[in-house]
Every structure is written in structure tokens, then in C-alpha cells.
Write a structure and sequence with these properties.
Among the domains are: about 140 residues, 3-Layer(aba) Sandwich (Rossmann fold), CATH 3.40.50.980; about 100 residues, ANL, C-terminal domain (GMP Synthetase, Chain A, domain 3). The radius of gyration is 23 Å and the shape is globular. It contains 15 helices and 26 strands. By secondary structure, the chain is of the alpha/beta class. The longest helix has 18 residues.
Length: about 525
């Protein structure tokens, strides 16, 4: 069966993304503060943001940037980041967002794959950008957002200049942003998101996650990731909220920014929920301004969500679901939902359809309460993977359904529950074991600060669950046997943890997803 959204359809937003977000900004919000440097004092009003992005667009066009070019935006979160992003799209370019911690070699691969010929970076990352450009060749110019000898600064483009370029953009076909998939299960691929797909996703989210003037959102998750780009940049700026920007997650700085700027809305990933629920530093700060927390990008255990809400005295932590290939949102728990079921990732966004299909009989539709692979169809779907038609065809079937690779089910009220990834399931003697389920059990142990689970092979060639565990500072005596016994008391025998390794930190993508690939490589070594 096909599951349809219970919410009224919203018209597709066939606009360039800079117009979808900033089209009414100067006139409607004017001198209201759009952006605040959470680590400093700088603020940017909506009028300034609109003016600055137009001037930067003119300067980029004057430098030679043309429609169809790709610009690599290589920077941590700053108040300049949105102006550069919208400037590049206004000048007709697609923006490929780059992880600021990429090595030169990783950056070079993205430059080569995306055919990017322009780079915007910051001075602390300049050497990596230069080296990447040298490895690839063909990069026309490297700009910096601050100041660096020998490079033009974005800041110098903010003064009066010639009018910005008048570029004809086809929102339905032209690519606005080219993020790269996280690589948690394979080689990173350029995801072609059109202006229309990402703009329409903003319209789909608006009825369920309402915000506007007076709201103060803390942007600590990276803008380069589609979750941060949508939830922390495009969505709040489109609706007149104030975005307080932090360059990275450091717990005390994060908590201090909530207190100082009276943040009322948090969009985070599960590791931050874990910190809010368990870390003793939380008690030192006044977080009373918070009204809601939304977690996405990785599975969030229901017990952990409840612990966070109880500690902060907040309504239940909301979850959202999606993926880069879907711009990214398909489901969210509405802020207005009074008592959503524990563990749900939400309901279908307006205009979005879903199927749950059998893992054993591909293509067979399942009904309410039955677990299978989640398939999505909607206007927020990607155009495809850049230069990878066969991988696009493997992801999107001939009927237009995108195969997410996630396993889930819906209840009778339309709430979606995500169980795990198809590719991450552990097959123990024919039984399917979900790593996320075991990780959720592990995190209920007071002595465990963080954990990840993968499948490894024993001496008999059987795949067995292995836990990588980060101890709490006061739990140095916690042993692997203790952990295996703890889990064995809470799960079916075939799900038991059979190996434990203690590590200093669980490898995660900037979005919060566990990088199981790195753990597998560690195991192989």
C-alpha cells in the first residue's frame, strides 16, 4: 500500500533558493537581526544580508563566475557563510559544500568529481584548499571569508558595487547545491538538489515546524551538511528568525550560547542529546529559554530522548527523518504534537508518499505494523547523483520511488519508526540484529558515555555483534564482561554482544551518524 501524508499539499516552490529564502527578507524583516556570531559580537540584519549577498554575487560574476559553474564552499559555520551561499546561487553557480575537516586529498576528490573551479574558504583552512587545488588543477581562484595575503576577501566585496548579475535560473532543472553523501556505507557521491527541490522542502516543513520573528535558533550543526543547511540556515532565515552561529560543537560554548542569547529552539543530532541528558556541565547553565529540541540525522533512542526532556523540563524531544537525497526532510514530529509515541521519527510531510516493502520479497508492499524498507516519492527528491547514472537508477526505481535503505514501520496513526539500515544489519546465524537497537541498550548503562556496534566475524565465520564502548570518566573499572552481561540481560540470546573493545571516542560524521565504515576498517586492520 501507499502511505499518503495526512497534511494538505503545499504548492511546489519553483523559485531560486536565494529568492525562496531572501525574496521578502529586506522588506518584511528589515532591521531585525538575521545572524549573530555566537562566539563574538557581530550581527547581521536581514537588510544587510540581502544587500551583502547581492554585492558578493556581483563581485563573483565580475571575477568570471558564470551560470553552470560549481563553487566549493569550504568553511565552518560563520555569519558570512549564508551570504556566500546565496550569492553563488544568485550568480548561477551550484554550491558544493565541503567538510571543513577534509584532508587536501579528500577535498581534491570532491573538486575533481564536482568539476568545481572556484573555492571560498577561511584562512585557517587555506593551506588545505591550496593543496587540494594543486592536486586537481583548473581552479580559477580561491577566495577567503576573512583575510589572507594573496587572496581576495569576501569582506572586501561588501561595499557598494555594480548591480548583481541578472541570471536566468530554471528552478526545476538547475542544481542549487551539490552536497556529498556522508560515505557511511560507500563512496561519497554528489547529490544534485535543484532550487525547486530544496525550496519546496522548506515549504513542506513550514506547517509542522513553525518559527518566525522572535525565535532564536542555535546553529551548531554544520551548514555544509544538508540538515544544517535546511534546518539551521534556509528554514529560519526564510521565516524571519534569528540564527546564532557557532563554528563547532564545544559543550561549554554551546551551553553558554543558549544562556546568553536566550535560544528557544535547538536542532541537533543524537550526540548532543546525549550530552544534554548526561553531562554534569549542563547543570551550570541557565537553559530555561529552551522551548523545544528536534533531533535528526541519526537514530535517537527513546529512553535517551526522555532522559533529556526530563532533565531540561521540556516537551518530548522531537525527531525528524530524511536523507541528503531528499533535500532532506520526509518526516517530522510536529512541534504541536502533544504526546507523540516514544521513538517515532514523525509523520509524512505534505505532498510526500511512502511505501514499506518486504526485505525478502522485493517490491511486495507491506501494511501497518510490518517492518520493511522505506521508499519515498515526493517533490523534494534529488535530480540524481552527479555523473553516476547507474547508481541513480539503483536508488530511484522506474516508478519514481527512492529506496532509502532504511528499515521501518508505521503504526495505525501514521507515525513512522525507523529500525535500522539495510546494509548495517548483522546476520547472526540467519537472525537479523539491528546495531541501533543494541546501541540504545548500551547507552542506558550509567557507566557508558557512548557506544557503537558493528558485525564482525568469529573463528567459525559467523557474523557476531561487537561493541565499541566509551567509558564514563568515573567508570574505569567497567569491563567487557560486565557490558556483555548487562546487554544479555536485556535482549534475546541471538542479539547478545559477543565482543567489546574500549575506545576513546566513537567516530561520527558531522551530522552525528556513526561512521561504521571506519570501525570496520579498524577491525580489519
Amino acid at each position: 500500500m501507499v502511505f499518503h501524508s495526512e497534511y494538505a499539499d503545499v504548492p511546489a516552490l519553483s523559485l531560486p533558493i536565494h529568492d525562496a529564502v531572501l525574496g521578502r527578507a529586506a522588506d518584511t524583516y528589515g532591521d531585525a537581526v538575521a545572524l549573530v556570531d555566537g562566539a563574538g559580537e557581530l550581527t547581521v540584519t536581514y537588510t544587510q544580508l540581502d544587500t551583502y549577498h547581492r554585492r558578493i554575487a556581483g563581485a563573483l560574476a565580475g571575477a568570471g563566475l558564470r551560470k553552470g559553474d560549481v563553487l566549493a564552499l569550504h568553511s565552518p559555520n560563520t555569519v558570512v557563510y549564508p551570504a556566500v551561499f546565496y550569492a553563488a546561487t544568485r550568480a548561477g553557480a551550484a554550491v558544493t559544500t565541503v567538510h571543513p575537516l577534509s584532508t587536501a586529498e579528500e577535498f581534491a576528490k570532491q573538486l575533481r568529481d564536482s568539476s568545481a573551479r572556484w573555492i571560498v574558504t577561511v584562512s585557517p583552512l587555506l593551506e588545505v584548499a591550496r593543496r587540494a587545488a594543486e592536486l586537481v588543477g583548473g581552479v580559477r581562484e580561491i577566495f577567503v571569508c576573512d583575510q589572507a595575503d594573496g587572496h581576495r576577501s569576501i569582506l572586501d566585496m561588501l561595499g557598494p558595487a555594480a548591480p548583481g548579475p541578472a541570471v536566468a535560473i530554471d528552478p526545476d532543472e538547475d542544481v542549487a547545491v551539490l552536497p556529498y553523501s556522508s560515505g557511511t556505507t560507500g563512496v561519497p557521491k554528489g547529490v544534485m538538489l535543484t532550487h525547486r527541490s530544496i525550496a519546496t522542502n522548506l515549504a513542506q516543513l513550514e506547517p509542522l515546524i513553525r518559527m518566525g520573528p522572535g525565535d532564536r535558533i542555535l546553529a551548531v550543526l554544520p551548514f555544509f551538511h544538508i540538515y544544517g543547511l535546511t534546518a539551521l540556515m534556509n528554514a529560519p532565515l526564510r521565516l524571519g528568525a534569528t540564527v546564532v552561529v557557532l563554528p563547532r560543537f564545544e559543550l561549554d560554548q554551546f551551553l553558554g550560547a543558549i544562556e546568553k542569547h536566550r535560544i528557544n529552539g535547538l536542532f541537533v543530532a543524537p550526540p548532543i542529546v546525549l550530552a544534554l541528558a548526561k553531562h554534569p556541565a549542563v547543570a551550570r547553565y541557565d537553559l530555561s529559554s529552551l522551548e523545544y529540541i528536534v533531533s535528526a540525522a541519526a537514530p535517537l533512542d527513546a529512553h535517551l530522548a526522555r532522559a533529556c526532556s526530563a532533565r531540561l523540563g521540556l516537551p518530548p524531544v522531537r525527531q525528524a527523518y530524511g536523507m541528503t537525497e531528499l533535500s532532506p526532510g520526509t518526516h517530522v514530529v510536529p512541534l504541536s504534537a502533544e504526546d507523540p509515541p516514544a521513538g517515532t521519527v514523525g509523520k509524512l510531510l505534505p505532498g510526500t508518499d511512502m511505501r514499506i516493502v518486504s526485505l525478502d520479497q522485493p517490491g511486495k508492499d507491506l501494511g501497518v505494523g510490518q517492518e520493511g524498507e522505506i521508499l519515498i516519492r515526493g517533490p523534494q527528491m534529488m535530480k540524481g547523483y552527479l555523473g553516476r547514472p547507474s547508481e541513480t537508477a539503483a536508488m530511484i526505481d522506474p516508478d519514481g520511488w527512492l529506496h532509502t535503505g532504511d528499515i521501518g514501520y508505521t503504526d495505525a496513526d501514521g507515525w513512522l519508526f525507523v529500525v535500522d539500515r539495510v546494509k548495517e544489519l548483522i546476520k547472526y546465524k540467519g537472525f537479523q540484529v539491528a546495531p541501533a537497537e543494541l546501541e540504545a541498550v548500551l547507552l542506558t548503562h550509567d557507566g557508558i558515555a557512548d557506544a557503537a556496534v558493528i558485525g564482525v566475524y568469529d573463528e567459525d565465520g559467523n557474523e557476531v555483534p561487537k561493541a565499541y564502548v566509551v567509558r564514563q570518566p568515573d567508570a574505569t573499572g567497567l569491563s567487557g564482561d560486565d557490558i556483555m552481561a548487562f546487554v544479555a540481560g536485556k535482549v534475546a540470546p541471538y542479539k547478545k554482544i559477543r565482543r567489546v573493545e574500549f575506545i576513546g571516542g566513537v567516530p561520527r560524521a558531522a551530522s552525528g551518524k556513526i561512521l561504521r565504515r571506519e570501525l570496520r576498517e579498524r577491525e580489519g586492520a
